[in-house]
Amino acid sequence: MTKKKVYIVGAGPGDVAYLTVKAYRILASAEVLIYDALVDRELLECVPPNCLKLDVGKRGGKPSTPQGEINSLLVKYCREGQQVVRLKSGDPFIFGRCISEIEALKSAGCEYEVIPGISSALAAPLLAGIPLTDTVISRCFAVLTAHEPEVLDWEALSRLETLVILMGGKNLAEIVHQLLRYGKSQSTPIAIIRWAGTPSQEVWTGELGNILTKTTGLYLSPSVIVIGEVVGLRKFL
Fold this sequence. Notes:
237 residues; alpha/beta; 5-stranded mixed sheet; 7 helices; 24% helix
């Protein structure tokens, strides 16, 4: 059979309304859909009725499909001549674990194309009314994952005006500890945005000095954490 292209598609931050037009058109032609855990289930209705749907989502602390198995599935169905769509939440190239999949496809001689998506790193603050930049209080921002906080340069990060942290809900205490350790003020504003872009969106705000108390006992994943003076602009916007 003739090999078809594998599309690695960004699904956006949550609600199907944030899917790009190009991504929607590609989903409409899918014969095999291989999707992540955090994608909106409404997106599964965008594919044809006879499309094979495979859930390979990875979630912390829960059984996950090994990356090698995902790579093999992409190659297998591409070689069978199927139109394969690999659907990832957010944008595929922002903490999307794309490199391994692309390497597998290239090694197998499979054509592929990456379709951008709206990253939650940008969308979640906006949907919570928090601008990431300001001409006075935020002339730069950094996006990071706190999945492995021990490998980050907290001394350098603490000097930046605005931080956007993904996959940091379960490590909130360590994030606060490290930033305070390297000189951030206890009064630095912080916002935690859970399930951004969905009907379940929740936002907690506070300061580095009290956010742990404010969120005691709450389950904070999946969330985007914004730290910096821009959080204080939320009440105006």
